[in-house]
Structure formats: structure tokens, C-alpha cells
Amino acid sequence: MFAFKLLSALSSAALLVSAATLSSRKDSHGNGKECCEISKDTMDLPPDQTALVAPTTDPLFVMLGVGIQNYTCSSTTSTYASIGAVASLFDISCLEKSDFAEVQTKAFKTWSKASAKTKATSIGATVGAPNLLGFHYFVTSPSGTGLSPKWDFTSTGKFAGNATAFVLAAKVGDMAAPTNPAVNVDWLALNNVQGALASKVFRIDTVGGQPPSSCVPGSAPISVKYTSKYFLF
């Protein structure tokens, strides 16, 4: 009888610890179903660079981006110039550490082989990140000239209908991808220009996205698939 009671007590204690652990992974973004605890999710930045400086605060959102980088051929240089990007943004805060580290690589393997009919919004679920937080795309800059990147949560999840749940940003830091920079697009740091979603945005751990090294002037614009991690602070 004593052994049974002891076993029951230990089982109850284990359940309480488990519940506490799950509870601790919930954050203030919602009811715990959208984002897990992300205070320990840090950016792995190369130590020998100063272009990207990690904030001292915890990130607000940690996401997988799956999409395309768009380019047009410059008639003066016969090289491709960026004309923006489009991506779906998935919450990766609940991934285990090993999965978190490689999620962009695993997602790219699926995305790069996907047919033209496959939507980027379907890729997150294939790597254990089914929760779509929002979208990334480019809009006309506030100055009226050029394009600015935008991360937009206004139509998805708990932020749907919140007109301020976005961040329009300007680039303040740029470094070539540490691995295969001719294939993988640059890592970036950006500061808020408009919106209430975040004050800083980082794009790191990029896979793919770079265009060919040259082009024929007058040729049609191209789209190049990519994945990356996005940290919003």
C-alpha cells in the first residue's frame, strides 16, 4: 500500500512538473497555442563581424520564412537587381533545439523541390511549424520612391484585424551569408520605420535566394526560392 501511495505521489508530481514546463513555454502573445517561450532562442551570429548586432532584449517573434526573392535584369550592368520578395512566416518558437537549428535547411529541401502549384503557406507544416504568423512582402517606400520590406500580421492569427500589427523597416546592416554567399542571400538587420509589431528585424540563416551572376538585358524578371529565419525584436 505504501509503495502504491508513493508511486501515485511521484506520478502526480511528474504531471505537475510537466504542466509547469508547458505553461512556462506560453508567452504574452496569446493563449499559448501560437507562440512558445522564446527567451532562450538566440541568433547565432558570426563573431568576426559588426554589421549585425544582436539586441540585449529577448525577441518578440522567431520565424521561418519561406518564399521567393524577385529580380530584374539591369540593362546597364547585365546583372540581376532585387525588386523585392514575398514569403510566408511561420512560428518556430516551439521547435526542439535540434530542429530549430536546421529548420530553414529542411524547409528549403521541401520548398526547392515543390511544384509551381505548391504554395509557400503549406511548407511550415512539413517541418513541424504549421502556425502561420503572417507574411513578408515589399511595398512602396514612405518617401514615395523605391520599395520597403514589410512584415505583416494584420490578416492572420490573433492579430487579424489589428491594423498596426506590422513593421515596415529600413536596412541598417548587411553581411554576406557565412556559407555559400553566391547561393544564399545576405543576412540583414533592419530598423522600424512604421508599424507597432517590432522595432528591429533580423534575417539570418538564409538558404537560397541568390540570382545567377549575369543576365541578358530585356529578359523577363525571375523569382528565386529561399528560406531563412527572421527574428523580430
UniProtKB/TrEMBL annotation:
Keyword terms of this UniProt record: Signal
Domain of life where this protein originates: Eukaryota
Signal sequence range: 1-19
Matching InterPro entries: DUF3455
Protein's name according to its UniProt entry: Malate dehydrogenase
